[in-house]
Amino acid sequence: MPKNxxxxxxxxxxxxxxxxxSQMQGEVKQLKAERxxxxxxxxxxxxxxxxxxxxxxxxxxxxxxLAAATQDGRRRLFLERKEMTEGIFKLAAxxxxxxxxxxxxxxxxxxxxxxxxxxxxxxxxxLYVSERDFDSYPELCSAFGDRCxxxxxxxxxxxxxxxxxxxxxxxxxxxxxxxxxxxxGWFAENAALSVL
Length: 196
Prior knowledge:
Blueprint: H1 2-99, H2 103-119, E1 125-129, H3 131-136, E2 148-152, E3 160-165, E4 170-175, H4 176-190
Helix pairs in contact: 1-4
């Protein structure tokens, strides 16, 4: 029996060792699984952070490119709008220059000169006209006697008349040049050529 006891004891030790081994293998397996899960979670967090950083970089780069493209587009649109406006006003100036060669213009010039003289209430004044009108309408001041002096003004390109009364310190501008220029504000507001 002693041999049987020894065998039983050895069997019990082997069984205990197998159970311990199995338990240790289970713990190692569980520990590996936990470590693997932790590593996967860390890798997942790191990859999400990296993806987020890359997306933010891409978004920032795209936003900067979009802003630059928008600004460039607005600049080009502004220049095109300015070019269109200048073309329209150049055409209007040509039409007004053609008008300045008509009989209607002659009547209008005389009427505007009379209006300016009335504004200056009998005081002496200078009447400015374009160089072309100076030669064509020397009689503009004749109706106002010696209180009116007619002078040519190189700044009046299209036509019309401008009066200046030194004693009153008043300039009355009825030139087609200034009237056309005054239309720029109205044109900008109403031409639907806005730059957004």
